[in-house]
Amino acid sequence: MPLAASRKVELAGATAVVTGGASGIGKGIARAFRDAGSNVVIADIDEPELDAAARSLGVLGIATDVADPASVARLAERVMAEYGAVHVICNNAGVGPFGSIGEMTLDDWSFVLRVNLQGVVNGVHAFLPLLERNPDWGHVVNTSSIAALISPPLAGAYVASKAAVLGLTEVLAAELKAAGSRVGATALLPGTVRTNIRHSLRTRGPVEASGLYEVDLEERRPDARFIEPEEVGAMVLDAIRRDDLYVVTHPELLPVVSERHARLVAGAAPAATPDR
Ligand SMILES: NC(=O)c1ccc[n+]([C@@H]2O[C@H](COP(=O)([O-])OP(=O)(O)OC[C@H]3O[C@@H](n4cnc5c(N)ncnc54)[C@H](O)[C@@H]3O)[C@@H](O)[C@H]2O)c1
Questions:
Q1: Catalytic annotation, residues
Q2: Per-residue CA distances from 88 to 11, 48, 79, 130 (Å)
Q3: Pairs from 235-238 (Cβ < 8 Å, separation ≥ 24)
Q4: N or C end: fewer C-beta atoms under 10 angstroms in the chain?
């Protein structure tokens, strides 16, 4: 197995692309890159919000639908034409509507999986070859969710998509290390962050029937600790500098993850051999 190449991450002057960058966590990450002196491109399907965010941050905004591979390929081409290189792709765009599995239509499944999972696949597919072309370094950040490891009720499609993103990022990081690549990969697992995710259905066209609905978690979970997108942005930049595989924004939730794994191990352990 080749040794992992050493890399020196220099964010000033580097180019970072953030999908879902018009709002919430993506905007917070974009702001952190801008403040570090990077060239920043935000990509989003919501054009009015994208234009407003690009203006307020002073960065380039490119209208993109991450669920559409051709749209993501065009984004990559435009970034290369503008800056000549890409160092970081943050596949962050996502939707988080609620709905019970028994009531969701197949179109509901498709809506969530196409943005949250296929969107990440499209981003990795279009940008990884460009990152690997850099002589110095590159990094992929994929936004999963701590929900991937907690499986809250009424979030079936969301959990399925985020668990898949976590898994693909772990495999990607291992493959890059095994190949001695200077490209790293990080899975971002946010807990509750103050964003516009409660309006996730705003980007979906009209549908005849749906089991999905919007929930304001801040109202429903007054006990939860909500953090600001800017805090997440700072954590993401630190993780890129250190080449960390995981960013967990709410470590206080990790005991729930440990419990889940303990249950899994206990449930799968062979029954004790009875005394004879
Ligand atoms: N807010 C939280 O508490 C939380 C927790 C865990 C994970 N996340 C994840 O963080 C990511 C960002 O979400 P957020 O909370 O900032 O929500 P947000 O709604 O504020 O931002 C999401 C952005 O993604 C964009 N988007 C949606 N569909 C798109 C598409 N097809 N193509 C391009 N852009 C698209 C939206 O227009 C929006 O600007 C998501 O992947 C979400 O699942 C959020």
A1: 158
A2: 9, 25, 11, 10
A3: 235/188, 236/29, 236/32, 236/90, 236/141, 236/186, 236/188, 237/11, 237/32, 237/33, 237/36
A4: C
Q: Give the Cα separation of 196 and 2 in Å (integer).
A: 43
Surface-to-core class of residue 230, CB atoms within 10 Å of its CB (0-12 exposed, 13-18 middle, 19+ buried) = middle
Phi-psi region of 243 (alpha: psi -120 to 50; beta: other; left: phi over 0): left
What's the token pair of residue 12?
């000033």
Phi, psi of 151 (to 5 degrees): 50, 60
What letter would DSSP give residue 274? P
Which residue from 45, 98, 141, 199 has its CB within 8 A of the most atoms of ligand 1, so it is best to mutate?
Answer: 45
Domains defined for the chain, CATH in brackets: 15-268 (3.40.50.720)
Token pair 């600790």 in the structure block, residue = 225
In terms of Cα–Cα distance, which of 162, 169, 168 is closest to 146? 162
Give yes or no for residue 42 CB within 6 A of ligand 1.
no
Residue 262 burial (10 A CB sphere; 0-12, 13-18, 19+): exposed
Q: Is 243 touching ligand 1 by the criterion CB < 6 Å?
A: no
Give CA–CA dist 4/33, Å, rounded. 25
Per-residue pLDDT of the chain (276 residues; tens, 9 = 90+): 455 567 899 999 999 999 999 999 999 999 999 999 999 999 999 999 999 999 999 999 999 999 999 999 999 999 999 999 999 999 999 999 999 999 999 999 999 999 999 999 999 999 999 999 999 999 999 999 999 999 999 999 999 999 999 999 999 999 999 999 999 999 999 999 999 999 999 999 899 999 999 999 999 999 999 999 999 999 999 999 999 999 999 999 999 999 999 999 998 877 766 665
